[in-house]
Amino acid sequence: MKIKDLEKLNDEGVESLSSKERRRFLQFGLSITGVFLGGTILSLTSAPKVQGALSSGNVPMTDFPYSPHYTMVIRQNHCIDCERCLDACRSTNNVPAHGYRTTILERSVPIAQKEQRERIFMPILCNHCNRPACVRVCPTRATYKDTTTGIVLMNPDKCIGCKTCMAACPYNARYFDEGKRAIDKCNFCYDTKLKESGGKITACAAACPANVRIFGDLTDPESAAYKLIHAPEKVVWVLRPETGTLPNVFYMNS
Amino acid sequence: MISYLKTNTFPTISMNQVLIVVGLALFSGIGLSFGIHSLVVGHDHTFGTSREVPWGILISPYVFFACLSTGLCIVSSLGQVFGIETFQPIIPRTVFLALITMATGLMCITLELESPWRVGFYALLSPHQSSNIWWKTTIYSLYLIFMLFNFMSLALTKKKMAKIFAIIALVTVTMGNLNMNSDMELLGARGFWSENYMPLYFLSLSTLTGCAGILLFSWLGKTFNGQTPNIENDMALKATGKLFTVLLLGILYFTGVKIMGGFFPQFTKNPEAMSLLVQGGFALNFWIGEVGLAVLIPLALILATKGKNANILALAGVSCLIGAFVLFYDLVIVGQLIPHYYQYNVVDLPQYYTYSPSLHEIMITTGAIFFFLASFVFGEILFKKIYTS
Questions:
Q1: ipTM rounded to 2 decimals
Q2: Among A52-56, A115-119, B181-185, B231-235, where is mean pLDDT lowest?
Q3: Domain assignments of chain B as residue spans, ordered by start
Q4: Chain B neighbours among A 7-66 (CB < 8 Å)?
Q5: Which of B44, B54, B115 sits opposite A182 (nearest CB)?
């Protein structure tokens, strides 16, 4: 229909349109500009999918996508902050003095009575998320999810040092290694201890005298980590679940 | 361009003009040499960034110049693409400004990278199409090429060709601008801005800075070259001034939304960051830079003179540009200052991370600004005829 013909038509007005209808029209008009990847690259609205890895809406997962699907369970009330795990990580993976792949945070948590607080040591490391924000933002695929094990790995040769992955990681798990001129991070000792042990253990887990860090395979019912996570009487949680990254490092009190 | 140069005699240059270009280029060289030094020794030794705050001030000039270029392209397209005659006299200068602002922005981001030499290989050999950074760099690089062709076509007075490139550049840069928002938004894990109004805010802010840039640099160009008053040119600048005023009112609304978010957490997705911006450590930046310099002062200056005084319009432009730079600095830094584990009662964890730009970062930023100014003056000398034709 031509514009001249349109002008001859009677104006129906917008009174009969429901507000829901108007909103849907506006939303359609604004988000239609999202031409790449369903609005995750371009959009006139804040596309919910852009926040994909970070939104609170969890994706239901009925199966583990990797085999072996490596995981780590942190029994945080066992941790005494001896830092042997940190030393083992440094020496095994040649971590420079200016960075760290894993560390231990000290928490002071209020308990039942006011003014009384409990001291808790919380080891942190890369969570090897199922929906890793760092992988999503990397422009050169320097960081990627290993298709077999689900470990988030780094190819330092491809890293341009934009540090977007550092900005995107909700767990502060990455640092820039000046020696490699690339980002470095925990890789569950993929090329060191894990390789040597035939996929059984990481350096930090092996060094822990209190069995705080339990490394294992989520697809293996015989794995200690599997058993801990699936024990019905245990409460298991992940860090910063609101970011929706689906971490593979779980926390519990033993 | 070659045929243009062959058929046109080289413009006459006064000694003062030479001194200005050489001086600006020298300052630019000094500033950028700090960037080279940082590349050699590593940013750990020269930048104020850290593991917790990985992005520093150098992201700000990148975003600033990229948005400025976007705005310039949009305003130039009013005359070139949409055929509005009033805006046509300012097209050549605006296109050239858009070209050099984007070049400056890309230079800033290159110097911000720790290993920029890998970009050439792996952006092509190992592209990641889900990465907003990859799209942004690709889109802006293509835009730079299109704008270069656009300007060359204008110089050769091939209007049809220029229009085609202008259309392509406009579409490209709009995509880049919307992508930049998504890029920031994705970093929601760090309390970056993921408000619903952000895409339109970015686009209006870009057009606002574009108008401010035209008002300022047209006045500077006129002063530099000692040009006689031109009615058509003045009309174009007045029209730009009107557009500038409307956009200022729009940005005033968005600033109001920010203020609401800063005082009332229920109005924002990032209450900690917004509070830090509006009533915390960045309040001075916000109220003086983002509210005063970027919006209220230009608005007051224009309303006081009814937008008829070119000198005042230029002053409003410079005020707005300085305010916008502060805005982009806040945009980049504030979101990163919220600690990752702030809700976990971690002992000795500061309420906010801290970041201060180092000497190297400041010098590189200054060098980039001087690079842009030197390019602008160079353009005024070399393309004087094109600007006035």
A1: 0.88
A2: A52-56
A3: 13-388
A4: 33, 35-37, 40-47, 50-51, 53-55
A5: B115
